[in-house]
Structures
1.
Amino acid sequence: MPKRTTDGGSGTPKRNRNGTAATPASSPGSKRTLDFFFTNRSLNNSPVDRKPYQEKAENGNEIADEELARKLQAQFDAEYHELNQNNTARQLVQDPEHTTIFDNTGVSNSEADTLKISESDISVAETVDCGVRPPSPSKEVALIPTAAIYGSIATIDFTVSPPKFDPIEHLTALKRLIPAPYLLLTHLFTQVDATRSRIKIINGLTNFIRLLMLLDKSAITSAVWLSTNSIGPPYTALELGIGGSILSKALKTVSGISAPALKSLYDKYGDIGDVAFEAKVSVRTLVDPPRLSIKGVYDTLLQIAVAKGSKSQELKQKLVEKLLIRGRGEEVRYLTRTFVQHLRIGAVRTTMLTALARAFTFTEYGPDCAQDKLQKAEEIVRQCYARHPNYNDIIAGLLVSGVEKLAESCPMTLHIPILPMLGSITKDMSEMLVKIGNEHTEFACEFKYDGQRAQIHYDESGKISIFSRHLDLMTDKYPDIVDVLQSHRVILDSTRSFILEGEIVAVNEVTGALGSFQSLSNRGRKDVQIASISVTVCLFAFDLMYLNGESLLDVPFRTRRELLRSSFAPVPHKFAFAESIDATPLDQDAISTFFRSSIESKCEGIMVKLLDSIAATTTASTRRTKSLLSTYTPDLRRESWLKVKKDYDSAADSLDLVPIGGWYGNGRKSNFWSPVLLAVRDPDTGVFQAVCKCMTGFTDAMYKETKAKYDEGTINVTRLKPADFETPLTPEYYWVPQEVWEIKFADVTLSPLYPAAQGIISDRGLSIRFPRFIRKRDDKGVDEASSPAFLAELYQRQQSRGAEDQDDLYEQFY
DNA sequence: TTTGTCTGCCC
DNA sequence: ATTCTGC
DNA sequence: GCAGAATGGGCAGACAAA
């Protein structure tokens, strides 16, 4: 049996795009953990006696080889029969052109078919097809030319500039592989993954789509979903439901490698896809399984997503295994990343839209078409996506009517959510005033409520849809909101259809006092019945994007707000307009007062929005390079509102915490400790109580410094939990307490997990919301770290907010 | 039935 | 959610 | 300034296991 070393062979990943090789398992026990992969705690029970990666993996491989190959072969055979009986027969009827893919010739006669495509072809497929075809008896000989074509895919360079990429050049050979092979997509991913250049990434996606348009149009949507870490638009609520647990079980089955050995691999690479790649490389099969197609992979994902009920986990795992078995080389890496919806190739949304726009423009006008034509196309596609965020419909529209008429073929539609306008962070009032414009700029300040954002659609028939910030449909979660709108005369008679936006906040039904975010999240989420609602809410409306059949997106905020206020009638404690004042930069006192009152009302701070569109000006007083927008156009400027929150301010409360442990990071941070476990210190007992993990706020320099200090093998780290540590979490290593880090946060929360300050406030401990590292406190020793009592005091101070009378008294006296 | 694990989605 | 980094 | 990546606390819901 050929000897494989762990780093040798074709399988050495050239991960990190920054050029640094994946950590070699040089130092004994170079390990990483990530909760979401090996969440199974039992794996952590005996970390100390785990052997170094090499030995374990070698052992695993030895077991894997021959025996496993036979096992897999038997499995293939069984599955071919199964598929023959079930899907393939159906496929033969529905899709006769494609049945020749894996036959003797490997030639498809579907050329004509792939050039004409109807809308239905690119919508979600109903048939299930893994891209698997029964092997024909004489395939040994016949597969050679096909295999050569697969081999030639590796020579295609997608990242060259579009004029240098001629899709037709590749067509003749690739046509024999229709439906488009998954390997083609994987090859694109590999190339995109290898560069950080935005230009090359966009080129890659663009040229790939250009090729698919000629090769196999029906694969475009599938490829786009697979490239964007999703399987459908968010508002259709398709969940894969695959996490580290199912994946590690599937990997174990497919590779024959034991769970501990897989964990070692994971520790080494810091990426599940890389683990799968490595694990699968060590598996040799006697006969290669048939190749995957793009559409086949996508359809299997859909099948995984719809699996529900008893034994569904098992079914999902089976389907995952099926794909993994059929995947080869790089395919396995990206299949696996797709399973956890974390492709990490540097192209998520905007990049894909740009690529779509360019691909269709190039195909229509040739690869040398004018720059402004491209730019215009990109604007159109981005705008259409912002108003109708569904790749199925965007691509269908592009195919049917081209880029220029996309707004008509893929229009803004009631009950399809639009992308939300977002706010950018401003540290304090003065930075906000600088960003907003000159002294004549008029703007609105609104309470930033601490609840859940909601986009509400209403049509002439009275149907209501409520969408979350990330465009998930949550109408079922808020039947009380629906009821208020429908039966309390909130919607004025003249208001026949609309899209409005607001914040849903927990409130005291009687007093109208605002509740916390934590209490809002105690509400049920699915199929909530009005009678059983325990957390009452109020909707604070703040914008109106559509009214009586007309879009208001290009209308200035001042007008939208007028229409909002004149189209709805408030109902106490149920429907209100967001608290608001209008101001100019000269009104600093009024703004400060308003900001303080927002905090006292348990809000997070304020949102600042331009009221009117400002004509482009070259006035020297404004330093802004890009003006803010008063229109509702997230496609033009995603973060055109300004967020001012108390905790952004440098004067905000912070904690001085002691780092007491760390986990290995992932991806970009795979060579660093991230996250880090932090603790308060009880000065009476000297005990360190865990408060939170922290992973943000560190510069790379800080990461390196930390890694050097708490390196494996130093006296600063230990596997065994020190007796004076109280933590429910098990980091990869515990750290010897010796530093104090300043950590900022938004709120103190009652924690179901962390033990800090347990017993002072309640039998639950305390934690913090949005922890981030600010700086090291070299001036402080661990005995000067924040105490549980201090943490509890912060919690209490925070709770006393909102009790207005009390606060006023406080201010009078101090 | 009850308890525990896993996942996705709110912020 | 927040934050950092490269383009 | 954009785009993307890496990951925070904490909840309900869906299953699996006991």
2.
Amino acid sequence: MNFQQLRIIRETVRRDFNLTEVANSLYTSQSGVSKHIKELESELGVELFYRKGKRLLGMTEPGKEMLRYVERMLLDAANIKNIAEQYSQQDEGQLTVATTHTQARYALPAVVVEFKRRYPRVHLKLHQGSPVEIASLLLAGEADIGVATETLGDVPELASFPYYRWHHAVIVTEGHPLLTVGKLTLQQIADYPIVTYHEGFTGRSVIEKSFRDAGIKADIVLSALDADVIKSYVMLGMGIGIVASVSVDEQRDPGIRKLDCSHLFAENTSRIAVHKGHLLRRFAYQFIEMCSAELTEETVKAESTHDL
Amino acid sequence: MNFQQLRIIRETVRRDFNLTEVANSLYTSQSGVSKHIKELESELGVELFYRKGKRLLGMTEPGKEMLRYVERMLLDAANIKNIAEQYSQQDEGQLTVATTHTQARYALPAVVVEFKRRYPRVHLKLHQGSPVEIASLLLAGEADIGVATETLGDVPELASFPYYRWHHAVIVTEGHPLLTVGKLTLQQIADYPIVTYHEGFTGRSVIEKSFRDAGIKADIVLSALDADVIKSYVMLGMGIGIVASVSVDEQRDPGIRKLDCSHLFAENTSRIAVHKGHLLRRFAYQFIEMCSAELTEETVKAESTHDL
DNA sequence: GATGCTTACGATACCCGTAAAGATA
DNA sequence: TATCTTTACGGGTATCGTAAGCATC
């Protein structure tokens, strides 16, 4: 048994049992991949994959059982390298934060500036994507930290922590009739076409739940990934917008007016997540602590051990 | 990084940093061991061991931090092999049970017979030793299951479960004066020279605690590893004996009389232990379940995951 | 001087990649 | 036929063990 074999096993599952792809993604030859699998199987005396003729189709029972251990071993190998880096270059290295547009643009800038001030030699990568993409980046080990409002809390392999709480707000153009009503109601909002976030983004599910629970049908005419796009279309008269309150500032967004609707939609909690069992560099834990002072290195580590 | 390097790191710690011994125990050459360590250190860019000139003295900080991961990886590698065996030969293999004399002779026979009946093709090894030795056999991966009354519950790397409860009994020769007194007292026992177990064995600590708490000084003239030896010396008139009640049967032990003293010494609990994170063969879990029906495979696994 | 670690060097085995052949859809 | 996997083969490299050289105690 050697590490290349383990990497191949893991990658074979990730690449859906296509050995050619596996070879490419590991920068080696198909023949080598094939041989490694055979060798491991013969060493263990068990078939790891189902085959139909020459094609691989899936994992056998013993294969599935082993996979978790294979993954943990590779994780541990990465952890060892991480520790080494930690000691050889305390404040140097790379930190990849996977996040949604909303977080990157409105929540994280303060943290990023502070982080760069303290760790000028750490190369910080902001990787933007949907919450689902963020989760899979974390799981694949391609990102160290994930920040998003949706999804992250639902993946068992991730350890997630509350970052900050926020509400949606309704945005309208100057002179809009809604500006004159007092306290907004769901029905009043539903009287207008709505522009808001895509499904799976930035509390969209919370918005839908409110309308559904009230038995009101909302007319969502357009959905977008981020508040900036939504604002643009609101300005173009496509309808009223529902966005994260933090993403609108009446000073910086001339022509846009913000209406409180914290009484209409449930509060959202943005979360910070890490892959369980994935040991981070010290500065990565510092980054998380800068987001929320309660999230110390010990707190995060305690929640993110990998116990299978 | 490869497995041989990891094995060498682990063994170097176990062998107290003597690379010659490491080489012998891994059946390879010193030169190879030395080179492997150097290579791993240079790959990681960190020194793992403190050196004074050419001698290794101990682990550096990063080395210590890595060690736990190294050990887990090697454990996981063993687990994978275990799974493979599990599937390739369901009811064949080897099971090593480390136990004290008392357990091997008086508690386990019934279980062993039953186990052999169900798994005739499993090679069962009974490894006898002191509780401390049993613990280290488990930790070194040389035994799968440990059974003893002392020590096992105190080692954090071991998961231990109650096996059965028992009391001590006093044994005397026929016609002994103690046979005529009614309910025994500690003082009456202390009036005679005592033969009992060694320190660290079979509830010896419980016996001492009772005397100490009562402020009575007992005269322990002889201590032995097992009840059979103790019985012999009692027969020779060295004194009265204190042994596990289960180890005396007035039918099978002619000339020996047993006196109840469950009111004098605290109850003992014999424990079954496994190394946390060490996955066992199915038949090993069956063995444990035969000892105590509540200890199912799930119960044991739940307590013995290795989360660092 | 005995023990223990490192370096040098040659034989072996392992791993990888190219190329051709066989299977599958 | 195009895609994918296996087998065959050659070059390169890593690993291992012996033996010699050096510290350390």
